[in-house]
Amino acid sequence: MKVVIIGANHAGIAAANVLLDEYEGHEVVLIEKNDNISYVGAGTALWVAREVENRNDLFYTESKDFEDKGARILMETTVDRVDYDNKVVHAVTKDGEEIEESYDKLILATGSKPIEPNVPGKDLDGIHFLKLFQEGQAVDEELNSDKIEKVAVIGAGYIGVEIAEAIQRRGKQVLLFDAMSTSLSNYYDEEFAQLMDKNLADNGIDLHYGELAEAYEGEEGRVKAIKTNKGHYDVDLVVNAIGFRPNNDLGQDHLELFANGAYLVDRHQQTSDPDVYAIGDCATVYSNALQDTAYIALASNAVRSGIVGGHNVAGTDLEHVGVQGSNGISIFGLNLVSTGYSIKACQRFGIDVDYVEHEDVQKSPYMSNNETVKIRIVFEKGTRRIVGAQIVSRYDMSATIHMFSLAIQQKVTIDTLKLTDIFFLPHFNQPYNYITMAALKAK
User: Fold this and answer.
1) What is the torsional sign of CA 423, 427, 429, 432?
2) Where is the FAD/NAD(P)-binding domain positioned along the sequence (predicted)?
């Protein structure tokens, strides 16, 4: 069987590795329009902040690794269309050569595209996005200039907040804009997001929430100011981090789509065309919190969907267990982690929920190097199953969220959690720790 994979980043790489490492006899062809693969975009801010010295450390594999396994990988090759009726992929190489690749099974791993504000001045120099390695490189090089003093970051989601911290660490003044009333609004309720906002402000980030960009203004072709619905600000550089939309360019006229344009897939990653699979940010996922199809673009989800897709393409019947959208962020020493849905998200999706929360120090009070931890557990009123959790602390409590992720996946109730066996040792926690105490508050 010949399998063509379009897109060779996290999802495409995972699928290719499954096919090459665990099955024999398949011809595997990867087509990638970029000149690199496996870039860990989540590390861009670390590199810009110089917390990672060598940017090459943000790549975990290369095209030669797949060639050594017997695959063909076509780099800097752009697919312009797919003939689904005849099962042929049409592409153009970097030298302008038109090529065709037939397939028995096709895997679409085309990822997502940055959302671009459609406002006057959007084509000025000095306005950047953060998706590809080259885009991170361009921002990093701009920050080396003494002429760059004031930077506007548009969007206070994970990427926006992370790059705002990184740019501030490079000695620049940062203005952080978002249309919502807090940062991180897609993942955290206001009481938690506001703790991050205070942390950002305390560390010198100039916050501008509830503001929408209306225009970019420039001089001699380069951005010099941003105009919003609330003010006018002189800036030397703009970084857009509004979010992403699924890249459905190759299949939107052939395949069934989700409400936001993502390829609609079943839990085997199969699209409405039985010979076409979609994985990663271009495809939907099954949300265990929602108990329905959703769109959650995360690298961790992309890898898992690639593994599932690879096995199913090879003939192994493997159903995806679903996702919770688990995530985390660490900014100026403050750590937030979440999984499932916040109260605000549950309201948006029509899930009737209640919640409990608790705040206490992590370790026994007599221990040194102790930090306060705040937790909120969200559960459905009728079934009492846990549908979300949020935790914030300056202590690294990130591993705790994995338990809540599994709880959502397995439909664990808040009442089961009340007496769950959680070990105690003063070095790590308290006998009445914050997880138990929060669960016990559920009436």
Assistant:
1) positive
2) 1-306
